[in-house]
Amino acid sequence: MLTDYVKKDLIFLNLIVSDRIELFKELSALFLEKGYVNEGFYDFIVEREENYPTGLDLETHTVAIPHGDSAFVKQPFISIVTLKEPIKMKKMENADEEIKVDLFFFLGLNDGTQHLQILKQVIGVIQHEEFVKKIKGVKTSEEMMDVINGVTVGN
């Protein structure tokens, strides 16, 4: 099911940003430009992340799963983003704590029922250290799609 939502044109590798606000601003502008979201997506995602943080500390790695509201999503998508250097994100289970994150799954879903299923799927796959290592090791969006599609990169 993830393969239906991960969009090759929304895979961004080794971005350089100073903080989550800059990341959200850059990506929201790209999502808007490409026709995936409406105006207001940026404001919503910033506010949502402030009130309901999405940073996950999974012992061997960290990931964040920011997601927008269906009201701002024109076409459903998952954008996978890696950063050159990690940035601070608030922890999902404790907003008073911050963790450094360099892997993001941005969810833009316009169906509430699918939203929960997709979120569970993303959380399921990111718990596998080998999967995350593969994602962090890709050099192109094509390689990322291969990993998402279950193809082992480099074979």
Automatic annotation (TrEMBL):
Identify the InterPro entries for this entry. Answer: PTrfase/Anion_transptr, PTS_EIIA_type-2_dom, PTS_SugarTrans_NitroReg
User: Which keywords are on file for this protein?
Assistant: Sugar transport, Transport
All residue ranges annotated as the PTS EIIA type-2 domain in the record: 4-151
Q: Does the keyword Transport apply?
A: yes
Checking PANTHER family in the record gives:
PHOSPHOTRANSFERASE SYSTEM MANNITOL_FRUCTOSE-SPECIFIC IIA DOMAIN CONTAINING PROTEIN, PTS SYSTEM FRUCTOSE-LIKE EIIA COMPONENT-RELATED
Name of protein: PTS sugar transporter subunit IIA
